[in-house]
Design a protein that fits this description.
The protein is 48% helix and 18% strand. With 788 residues, the protein is of the alpha+beta class. A hairpin with a 3-residue loop joins strand 17 and strand 18 (633-647). Helix 5 (258-283) runs parallel beside helix 8.
Length: 788
């Protein structure tokens, strides 16, 4: 298969060469210093090839007629090439080329395209100077090289042209001229020249934009070296398009130094091959031969250094040996891409297709350089565009794969973080349950005054720790998009009253007045999430008390407007605390942020409360706003639209049962928990309330001990050895047990809602729990009055 492909390639190349040779054979050629074009249409550019008169180290007067005194050479003619007699001329020198051109009579306006020469010239037609590049001289002194192809118009009405070309070279290692002059109709040659310039500009623009784009992608992305080297290749090769062959850059900036541009021409060639080999190495590191790449890079970068260090005469001689390296790369790169494709590397089909495109473009360039074929600029343009488009697909596929992997890793990281926080929550809440529970028990057991003070400090610290844990978990859920909202009837005034009552002791300890005011127009329950409303208001009120040392904190609920079905409320928390500077008023809503670092040291806290409250309100189409003045206080408020529910029924605030009462005198409870401290806390509460308590250490033991004729309630831990609480509850329901089962767990209800429902568990009390919470839950499921 490989041999067949190689044969096909050689057949194609042979066909191109043969076509070129045949084309040369039918093109008019100069003979004895004269070329006859009288029978030609000149609709396309005809090269003025053939025998020209040549005078070495002479600048002939262009007005002199042909005297046949010169030597006949095959034009285009480089001095350093081997002549028919086997001799060579030195590269430094000067000479005159002359030819007489016979034109058809009455032709349209004609033009002549003059290529670049080695490495300065003057062109005379019928004795008149019509074009020049650089400054010619008979010595290095006063000589200035320059390269720029030129299109000149031939004066009309001429049937004979005496063309005299003066060439001088004291810079390049080649001398003379290697490309023919073209004569053709002005319109066609001009159109061809404009088309060539347009293609060069378009391709240069594409390369520059691709290089800048991928360089930016590298700088702001994941610093993938594959993207970096492709960007560098695009930028380097863009100079090859605009600064070589047509030398369009020299026409745009005619004052550029030849010594600079010739170095850029060679450096861009050497470095582009080296950078592209590095690009291939990082694209398919498992398929490349590193020794080959190292050797290629060594040659490329060595030649680059020599180009910078040596004079043009020496470094221009590096081109011929380097073309061997370029030819090797033309075949080696597709070979690597073929291996990558066979090994099913990512995007290898695109690299293989792009390799075929670039190989075609390079092959055309090399064959044109060696003089076998024309430039085929449009074919090369299509090949280059195909190459860069396919390479862009490869890199886009690579970036997409990297982003996909990063996203997967991020999602896995979020999952691990969530699992870690959930585990830590459970592990922290479990001992906190004992600390808070035992503190309540000791506080209600008539402690000495000094003990009571210490117990209150311990309870306060434990509650603060619980708030921190809850804040971190809540923010994690918000970030993960897992927060949900209930829609149920709630009494916002009643909820606010309970919150104010609960924090009244904290405010009293700081000698702060705690005020509460409700608009009398609020006469309806509203539909919302009482848990989240409580969380937001508690955060705001707790925050206000924390940052207020004197004066008061006021909670107000105001009815802004209402109709028969909806009500628009403004809930505000005002304080006379430290206030917030204007420059910090937006920062405090960011996570883990306070007005300045001294606040965290002075007042404590995670800086999450306001961020959580703000995000909860935003998810309910509201916003948390602030009015504050440093040193005078702040007002945090939000406005929220609610749907109306039932009318509010006036009621008294029910107090929790003191532990000295025995409201559960005839109640038997089965407590299932493997943690003895938690068992002790629950047992103490229940027995103080008069209940009879039996204990099981795991789910299987609970199944064995449960007596439906005796037990009226089961308090079930969920995580236990032998059999967990889910399985035990499900087995009880399967066996026909209908008594209430309440989970006592450190997990948050929303995290385990589905499993609770499937297991038949009626409700949840989250550890650490307050005595009131457990008491009210038991009253609810045993249909007992909440005794005071």
């Amino acid at each position: 298969m490989k041999v067949g492909k190689i044969v096909v390639l050689f057949v194609l190349l042979f066909s191109l060469v043969t076509w070129k040779v045949n084309a040369k054979s039918i093109t008019p050629m100069a003979s004895n210093g004269t070329i006859d074009l009288r029978m030609q249409s000149l609709s396309t550019g005809i090269p003025l090839n053939g025998q020209w008169e040549f005078h070495w180290k002479v600048f002939l007067d262009p007005d002199l007629p042909n005297d046949k005194s010169g030597k006949l050479v095959d034009f285009p003619f480089r001095w350093t090439d081997k002549h028919s007699d086997g001799t060579k001329l030195p590269s430094f020198g000067y000479a005159t080329y002359r030819v007489r051109v016979l034109l058809p009579a009455n032709t349209d306006s004609l033009s002549m395209k003059v290529p670049d020469t080695y490495s300065a010239y003057k062109l005379f037609i019928n004795g008149k100077l019509v074009s020049s590049n650089g400054i010619i001289s008979t010595s290095a002194e006063g000589f200035r090289p320059y390269w720029r192809p030129t299109l000149i118009n031939i004066p009309p009405g001429r049937d004979t042209l005496q063309v005299t070309l003066h060439i001088a070279n004291f810079a390049h290692y080649k001398g003379g001229i290697s490309q023919p002059l073209l004569v053709g109709k002005q319109q066609q040659l001009g159109l061809s020249e404009n088309r060539a310039s347009s293609i060069d500009l378009l391709l240069t623009g594409c390369l520059l934009m691709a290089g800048i784009f991928f360089m930016g992608l590298y700088l702001v992305g994941n610093r993938d070296k594959t993207i970096l080297f492709f960007a560098l290749f695009c930028l380097l090769y863009s100079y090859r398009i605009i600064g070589v062959d047509n030398y369009l850059l020299h026409s745009i900036f005619p004052g550029m130094s030849w010594h600079l541009t010739v170095r850029l021409e060679y450096i861009s060639l050497f470095l582009s091959i080296g950078v592209f080999s590095l690009y291939t190495r990082y694209l398919y590191p498992q398929d490349i031969h590193k020794v080959v790449i190292r050797c290629t890079n060594a040659v490329c970068f060595s030649f680059t250094f020599l180009t910078l260090a040596l004079s043009p005469y020496y470094f221009t001689q590096l081109l011929t040996p380097f073309l061997l390296v370029a030819t090797f790369c033309i075949f080696y790169i597709p070979y690597i891409y073929t291996i990558a494709y066979r090994r099913k590397r990512s995007g290898a089909i695109y690299t293989l297709m792009s390799a075929l495109a670039i190989v075609t473009a390079f092959a055309i360039s090399l064959l044109h350089f060696w003089g076998y074929i024309d430039r085929y600029q449009m074919v090369s343009f299509v090949c280059y565009i195909a190459f860069f488009f396919l390479q862009s697909l490869i890199l886009s596929h690579r970036v997409y794969a990297a982003l996909k992997q990063a996203r997967t890793e991020a999602e896995q990281g979020l999952l691990v973080k969530s699992e870690f926080l959930s585990t830590m929550s459970h592990e922290i809440r479990t001992p906190l349950n004992a600390v808070i529970g035992m503190s309540h028990l000791l506080l209600n057991n008539n402690p000495r005054p000094d003990q009571e003070e210490n117990l209150k400090v311990m309870l306060f610290s434990a509650n603060n720790l619980l708030v921190i844990v809850n804040d971190i978990l809540d923010y994690n859920k918000i970030e993960a998009g897992k927060i949900t909202f209930e829609r149920m009837e709630m009494d916002v005034a009643d909820i606010a009253k309970y919150i104010v009552s609960g924090l009244n002791a904290t405010a009293t300890d700081k000698n702060i007045a705690l005020k509460f005011e409700v608009d009398q127009e609020l006469k309806d329950l509203v539909i919302g999430d009482p848990t989240r409303f409580t969380q937001v208001l508690t955060n705001l009120l707790h925050n206000a008390i924390k940052f207020t040392d004197a004066g008061y904190v006021a909670v107000t609920i105001e009815v802004l407007k209402q109709n028969a079905t909806a009500i628009y409320l403004k809930v505000a928390v005002k304080d006379t605390g430290i206030g917030i500077p204007l420059k910090n008023q937006q920062r405090i809503f960011e996570r883990f942020t306070q007005a300045d670092s001294s606040i965290s040291r002075s007042f404590g806290g995670t800086g999450l409360g306001l961020a959580i409250s703000k995000r909860i309100l935003e998810l309910q189409d509201s916003s948390l706003d602030l009015v504050s003045e440093e040193g005078k206080g702040s007002v945090f408020y939000f406005e929220q639209l609610f749907t109306k529910g039932k009318k509010i029924v006036p009621k008294d605030i029910t107090q929790s049962a003191p532990l000295s009462q025995k409201p559960f005198q005839d109640v038997a409870v089965l407590v299932v928990d493997d943690n003895m401290i938690n068992v002790m806390v629950a047992r103490k509460f229940l027995e103080n309330w008069g209940a009879t308590v039996d204990v099981a250490m795991d789910g299987q033991e609970a199944l064995d001990q449960l007596d439906v004729n005796k037990h009226q309630l089961v308090l079930m831990d969920l995580h236990m050895p032998v059999m967990n609480g889910y399985e035990a509850s499900k087995k009880m329901r399967t066996d026909g047990v209908v008594i209430p089962i309440i989970a006592l767990t450190a997990n948050l209800p929303e995290e385990i809602y589905g499993r609770l429902k499937d297991s038949g568990i009626d409700d949840v009390v989250v550890k650490p729990f307050l005595p009131d919470q457990l008491y009210k839950k038991i009253c609810q499921y045993l249909n007992l009055e909440n005794l005071s």
